[in-house]
Amino acid sequence: MEDTMLVSPLKSSNKTILSLIDKISFSKTTESNLSTKDIKKLTGYKPKNLKIYEVAFTHKSENRTDVNGEKINYERMEFLGDALFDAAITAYLYHNLPNSKEGELTQMRSKIVSRKHLNEIGKDLKLVHFAKSSHSKRKFSYNAHGDFFEALVAAIFLDRGYNTMNKFIQKKVIDKYVDLNQLIGKIVSYKSIFIEWCQKNQMPYNYKSYEDEGKDNIKHFAVKLYVDNKVAAKARATSKKKAEEIASRRAYYKFQEKFEHDLNISH
Fold first, then answer.
1. Residue ranges of the domains in the chain?
2. Is 82 marked active-site?
3. Fewest CB atoms within 10 Å of the CB: 84, 173, 204, 265?
4. pTM of the predicted model, to two decimals?
5. Is 190-263 a domain of CATH 3.30.160.20?
6. Which of 62, 78, 150, 245 does the annotation list as catalytic?
7. What distance in Å separates the CA atoms of residue 19 and residue 223, rounded to the nearest whole number?
8. What homologous superfamily is domain 2-183 in, according to CATH?
9. Tens-digit pLDDT profile for the chain (267 aa)?
């Protein structure tokens, strides 16, 4: 019943997507190592429609289009797979950690669905090997590993449905990479925790950043983190994002007891 409720809103759009995929023809001269045997080895079952996976592993450099001139590549499937993977992990944590609070569950999910983690999974599965591309695969960004993994998740959903996709995620991701005992209480992003804490306590905050004109050869950014119009922490790093995270970590330790009490977390 639950799976039917999750899938039913997507049924009509799925039929449209699949009908379009059926009309796509792939050139045999295009570099591709993808086969029915490969999909069965990756997912544990024989695909019903191999073309779905062909699209999932088609890089945008192929410049393919359908009869209407719409681009054909993995990007739309990556978008769908991202949402589906996030939903599957959310449901898993919700059912397996009934005593965890929202903030803690959010932090654990963030670590599992992080770009870094998805890249590791995609690399372990050697998904780039199956990509069709007009460019050398050596030029792919590291994020391509995670991109193709998300596209694969979407392909499984479109080909075999939510249940099979969920079983794939359980076997290939949760069983191999997720340790709930290690995830419980651990902080993934100090910035997100800090923002959550400020919002919960209705405290105004602001990150003020600027280029640091120091003597370093590499450009640095400096950040001042204001809480209730007062400087709570400062940091300096090679990117604005890193500087904000460091400043947030320093602010966390400054207010550590309040953080742990309010959000029920520990380092």
1. 2-183, 190-263
2. yes
3. 204
4. 0.62
5. yes
6. 150
7. 51
8. Ribonuclease III domain (1.10.1520.10)
9. 344 334 444 554 555 555 555 545 444 434 445 789 989 999 999 999 999 999 998 877 666 666 666 667 888 999 999 999 999 999 999 999 888 888 778 878 888 998 888 999 999 999 988 888 767 767 787 889 999 999 999 999 999 999 999 999 999 999 999 888 777 656 667 888 888 888 888 889 999 988 876 666 678 889 999 998 899 999 998 888 889 989 998 988 888 777 666 665 544
